[in-house]
Amino acid sequence: MQRLISISLLLGASTTFAQQFPRHELSINGFRNPSIGLEYRQNHVSVHAGYYLTAFRAGVNTSFLRAGLTYWFLPVGCKPNPSSFYTSVSYVRGFNGDYREKNGAMGEVGFRWMVWKGLNLRIGVAALMAPGESLKVNPTPGIGYAFSW
Question: Which keywords does the record carry (predicted)?
Fold first, then answer.
């Protein structure tokens, strides 16, 4: 009996996580995560590019060009385009401050919540590495709208 209950719970949980991603998606990202720009996803992998703004110190904004790849996994929910976890790696190029004309790399992990139709909110944490600078870790909230087909 205990095995039957365990198997039933496992099957119930697996159908919750068995949600599939739409084959294609184009996102217009309006705030920060992954950048203010565009992102195209095919199945589980997306490419993104745009303008990234952050504050490593209070009152001091630092801006970057950001482009990279994202891997989407563990889709959850019953919507046609499910919420899911993601991890990404990006190239960044600084525009101002301590990072002016410096190249760097940024890694990130987080969760995207599909709020309504294509409207989505993201929360993640990113680590930035650049020559001559200490490792910077900060939160990465975001808002965007995704069109899928």
Answer: Signal
